[in-house]
Amino acid sequence: MALENQYTLTAGEVANLWNSYMGNTMAVGVTSYFIKTATDPDVVEMLHNAVDIADFEVQGVRELLKKYGHPHPQGFSSEDFNFETPALYKDTIIILIKYILSQAAGPIYTVAHSEAVNYDVRQFYLTCSSRTSNFNAQLVELMEKKGLFHPKIHLPIPVSVDKVHKKSYMGGWLAGRRPLNAGEIMHLVTNIRNIEVEREFLTSFVQVNTSKVLIDHFKRGEQLAEKHLKVFQSLLAKDNLPQFPTLENEITDSTDSPFSERMMLYKIAVFASSTIARYGTAISTIMRKDVGVDFSRLMAELSLYGEDTLELMIELGYLDQIPLAKDSD
Fold first, then answer.
1. 221: containing domain
2. CA nearest 217: which of 278, 307, 295?
3. 142-170: per-residue pLDDT in tens?
4. How far is the CA of 148 from the CAs of 44, 94, 139, 184, in angstroms?
5. Are residues 119 and 18 in the same domain?
6. What is any Pfam family matched here (predicted)?
7. How many helices (H) and strands (E) does the chain have?
């Protein structure tokens, strides 16, 4: 059997480069809009850094795809944004949006680097991972400065480390029999923050849209997010742990859309996909059966919504086809 041409991209590299291009062309436009509307100098400085990172990654993907003879997807451009519209998001939620996205990007770039075979692709994703890690550190400092990590949940410090002796530690399928452990609390808090940001995006998309089809779809997502938040907050409340604030006041009353329909649908598709991944990670590590059941059923609901989002994108002609394997027929 003849050896394959070593100077080609693997399927994994193509998939990761495509996703990077789509996500970062969107990030350039959305972040540029945020820069136009943000009022806090600290936030504006952070956003300029975010644009620089996203633009670097867009140019890097273009060069790699061109080098290996691949076309790049349509991506997002100035046609998908109206930079002259009034502010739709206030500064606090802008910080939280960037924090959530930087958290999601870190593992993605780590996996893309570990899966890459070609040296230049590996180096590209190594740089992306490093820059994203530094950006996340900047965001953590900014969140601390603005008090956005409150409430912080602190646990009693054990005198010693005990072993688990009873299978009842895992609880029942319908009700837990012990307090939440540190890992379970971590997943609940992370997903509460993530879902709350997603919910406010959906609320804002309903507010600025004129298409009944899209309004109905985004309202459905908004209701789904509210349901997930109630489930997660109630699990914390049962252990007398603090409730996390909602962000309704961080959306202005503007009805002018800064984003194209295509961009809004893609944003929600990405949020759904990343949230499903977070839920999957939670399920794999959570030890209390009832909490795992909650994550599993909510993940199934979100998967259906994500599928319907993709079907809507296909129906409207918004979804580029990623390269396929050779047709065997």
1. 172-315
2. 307
3. 999 999 999 999 999 989 998 888 777 77
4. 17, 12, 10, 21
5. yes
6. DUF3231
7. 8, 0
